[in-house]
Specification:
This protein is an alpha+beta fold. It has helices at residues 3-27, 32-42, 59-72; strands at 43-51, 54-57, 77-80, 85-87, 90-98, 104-114, 120-127. Strands 1, 2, 3, 4, 5, 6 and 7 form a 7-stranded mixed sheet that branches. Helix 1 packs antiparallel against helix 2 (32-42). Pfam families: SnoaL_2.
Length: 129
């Protein structure tokens, strides 16, 4: 691979990493307005999120889903546990959810699509992997 292509790929991966970090920050944000702003940065308006427990469409629905999750698990925090891997319009990363004491509640893997504007437009979560 020539250096120009490698530089473009590295820049694209870095941009996707920032989007994933904003997405994870939304899961860690208690304030509804701040969470919504993070999702506006990271999530397409009509994006679909699905995992074994839910399927939601759009920024507002995802924000409400995150709020319900954080009410169910007070003090929960999500953290990235792998590098963000991206190519073409696809992204992949693993994460861990911990409670307020740092105990692991759940680990998972997300696989998704990146829209033309650089935001997540489809994300599928898998638990226990």
């Amino acid at each position: 691979m020539n250096h120009a292509v490698a530089d473009i790929n590295a820049a694209k991966t870095e941009s996707v990493e920032m989007i994933v970090m904003a997405y994870l920050a939304a899961w860690n944000e208690a304030d509804d307005q701040t969470r919504r702003r993070l999702l506006e940065l990271a999530w397409c308006e009509t994006a679909v999120y699905s995992d074994p427990t839910a399927r939601v469409v759009g920024q507002q629905a995802l924000s409400e889903h995150i709020h319900a999750f954080t009410m169910r698990y007070p003090g929960v925090r999500l953290e990235l546990t792998s590098p963000v891997s991206a190519h073409h319009d696809c992204v992949h990363f693993t994460w861990r959810a911990t409670d307020g004491d740092g105990f692991t509640l759940r680990e998972g893997r997300d696989v998704g699509k990146i829209a033309r504007d650089g935001r997540l437009c489809d994300l599928v979560g898998f638990f226990g992997v």
